[in-house]
Design brief:
With 486 residues, the chain is of the alpha/beta class. It is built from 16 helices and 23 strands. The longest helix has 25 residues.
């Protein structure tokens, strides 16, 4: 049985209580590791180590040297690629075809991108005329905020953790990471990499455990944690905001979504089907950007539904190490039960089940895995719970529409505002509709095509602030104006 420890001050360590909790492999439903259960005292140990490093070698390190170290972290992740793959697949059950192309290489790339970006980024300066005719010069510098609390989700554990850790460290901060209790392995493995390449002890720390009334809440409420960055459910984001209020911490939230995809009648229907297949079912629908609401022009509705159905039924579930597997399981038994409850609810609300709508029964080593079938519904009211609530599984509801104004209204009729996907060959319509969608990101004739320099985040209940490019560096920095009177 594998043991996954905390990582504090450059060392793998058991929790102060010596307690552990079980970690399950979602593809088999079996326990594969015991994880050290952190305590409030462990959080404090990690914060004090991070604080010491901030005022020690890390804080005194020149920018270029700091960024060069982060580039070496990326190189070492690449060199230990197979270990990271094994850890990520054991934690999530996702297919190797996905983890090897997205999770691990993107996790490494985040360190290169943000270290290069900070080295290349300049500073603002302004000349001010003064009454004495001599003038003054204003210039802007960046300083680290301090100790950053990083609370990570389970759907893309390494990628979304490094998406936060990399810019935080590039900006000179130190971090305490609280990974999801479902996916702890790669966070601790990254600690080994940090030590191997020479990142000073205490710069990167990991405390495993749960959220409310556990290490997550202790991290959020710790008075010496200066900022919290969180990706996860909207309800959890609200709780973090309340819990951190007494200390006025900086907050960055990327929260839930109930994202629309809109297919207009002039769209390339085969490209739209292929794109929607991906946007509805990627990572078993466990991506905050997935399209759970699909709106299709009435003239092509039946054709689109039939084409998407036929492609969804070709999705292959099974051994995550098999190259033929194209969709993995849900993350946990609890989440499988949640998604199954929506299958039942959809029928009660009057949905027509086009395909799926039930658990997937596999054989052999995977007969206890948390698999569900890709599911397509039609026929629900726009006010149905299955249309309003984020399900976070491989599901979508397809609704016909008659005109542009109607579909924009339906797309925006949600508490969320994370992203949208539009499919059209009318360039004017693409710009016109994109500008009217209340979401932080809109893709036209594609989905999840990311340039990491651009802002990432949502409107309304989908988030607070933006990540990516200079937006990440601004969040993880204190900007200081220095005025020199001549």
């Amino acid at each position: 049985m594998k043991t996954i420890n905390l990582w504090i001050n450059g060392e793998s360590t058991a929790s102060g209580s010596k307690e552990t909790f079980e970690n399950f492999n979602p593809a088999t439903g079996q326990v594969y590791a015991q994880v050290a259960l952190g305590t409030k005292d462990d959080v404090d140990r990690a914060v004090q180590a991070a604080k010491k490093a901030l005022h020690g070698p890390w804080g005194k390190m020149p920018l270029r040297a700091r960024c060069d170290l982060l580039s070496r972290v990326a190189d070492r992740i690449d060199e230990r690629r197979e270990e990271f793959l094994k850890a990520e697949i054991a934690d999530t059950g996702k297919p190797i075809g996905l983890a090897s192309k997205i999770d691990i290489p993107r996790g490494a790339a985040n360190f290169r991108i943000f270290s290069d970006m900070l080295k290349a980024h300049g500073s603002e300066s302004f000349w001010q005329d003064t009454d004495d005719g001599l003038g003054a010069m204003h210039y802007v510098t960046r300083e680290p905020i301090g100790v950053i609390g990083v609370i990570c989700p389970w759907n893309l554990p390494l990628l979304l953790m490094t998406w936060k850790v990399a810019p935080a460290l590039a900006a000179g901060n130190t971090v305490v990471v609280k990974p999801s209790e479902e996916t702890p392995a790669t966070a601790t493995l990254l600690g080994e990499v940090m030590r191997e390449v020479g990142v000073p002890d205490g710069v990167y720390n990991v405390v495993h455990g749960f959220g409310k009334d556990s290490v997550g809440e202790a991290l959020v409420q710790h008075p010496e944690v200066s900022a919290i960055t969180f990706t996860g459910e909207t309800t959890t984001g609200k709780h973090i905001m309340k819990s951190s209020a007494n200390h006025l911490k900086k907050l960055s939230f990327e929260l839930g979504g109930k994202n629309p995809a809109i297919i207009f009648e002039e769209a390339d229907i085969d490209r739209a089907v292929a794109g929607t297949l991906r946007s509805a079912f990627a990572n078993c629908g466990q991506v905050c950007l997935c399209s759970e609401r699909v709106y299709v022009a009435r003239s092509i509705f039946d054709t689109f539904v039939e084409k998407l159905k036929s492609q969804a039924e070709l999705i292959a579930m099974g051994d995550p190490w098999a190259t033929t597997t194209t969709m993995g399981p849900l993350i946990s038994k609890t989440h499988q039960q949640k998604v199954e409850s929506y299958f039942k609810l959809a029928k009660e609300e009057g949905a027509q089940v086009i395909t799926g709508g039930e658990l997937a029964k596999l054989e052999g080593d995977f007969d206890q895995g948390y698999f569900v079938k890709p599911t397509i519904w039609t026929g629900l009211s726009e006010q149905a719970r299955c249309v309003k609530e984020e399900i976070f599984g491989p599901v979508c509801h397809i609704q016909p529409f008659d005109d542009e104004e109607e579909v924009i209204k339906m797309a925006n009729d949600t508490e969320y505002g994370l992203c949208a996907a539009l499919w059209t060959q009318d360039v004017s319509r693409a710009h016109r509709v994109s500008s009217q969608i209340r979401a932080g990101m809109v893709w036209v004739n594609t989905w999840y095509l990311r340039d990491l320099r651009t802002p990432f985040g949502g409107m309304k209940a989908s988030g607070l602030g933006r990540e990516g490019g200079i937006h990440s560096l601004n969040f993880y920095s204190e900007l200081k104006n220095i005025c020199v009177k001549l």
